[in-house]
Design brief:
Length: 323
Amino acid sequence: MTEISPLEKINSNFKNKDILSLDQFSPSDLKKLFTLTKKMKTIAVNAKPSDILKGTITILLFFEPSSRTFGSFSAAIQQLGGSVIAFQGMGNSSAAKGETLEDTIRVFEGYSDAIVIRHSEVGTAQKAANAATLVPIINAGDGIGEHPTQGLLDMATIYEKHGRLDNLTGVFAGDLLNGRTLHSTIRGLSLFKNNTLYLLSPKQLQLSREHYNEFTQRGLKLIEITNEKDIPANADFWYWTRVQKERFKSLADYEKVKNKFIVTKKLMKERAGKETIIMHPLPRVGEIESDVDDDRRAVYLRNQIRNGMYVRMALLALILGKA
Ligand code: NCD
């Protein structure tokens, strides 16, 4: 069992903090992060040489497959002149020989300034943070738990478009039970007032009752729906997700619930508003038809994906005490 330690709040000071959950942030911490994110965008877009992270080494320890999170962390570090040592598919490592996670962390923290970790088990990033004594740990996804840097980039994308993180109406669709990205994003939105979220999923993939109760108690208005016809007109954003095949016990169970809800041009015409942005953490496997991609409201292959790198640049600069 992973020991549950109280999460350390950012409390205006990011330096050397582990990043495990959106619960560590306050609205003012997010404001600070997103202000720096804008500056990072300028560095990246204008190809301005930067040495903000020069002399730092960040280790990426990915026990589970990844392409965008892995790629955007690597790119973010290199944009700022830092170095990366990356391990993907830890099958080739000592973990395969039976080394404990704790030992792996104690070894790699000796070589680095920060460790980014992805793992299939909930609580692994917390476990790594408990083991680390020298460097901050960043959770890049722990099973069906959280994916805080994705939550941050999702919120940065909503903020960039709508200029606020309160008084929003949004739709989350797909695998609400297993989708760790939306667990972080909804947690983040629960920090702000007067947000209403429509939750569209088959019954089997509803948000867990624990999550539902926790988020409701925090003041989020959650409305569970099972039919696309109940999507509210003119929502501020739609956030579609992949049914997380790898979390199912049997392929047959997965087949029963996959792609029940698909974003099509027709659905956009019927239910989306002029300013509704269409988001997806990616990869998509059929949940959004490709002819939606050219719609200016579709941000998943544009701002949302790019914000991933800018937010990670800002977060690393703050955690490593360079901004
Ligand atoms: C997601 C993940 O790994 O949780 N991908 C990502 O990091 N953007 C979403 C997914 O795999 O469906």
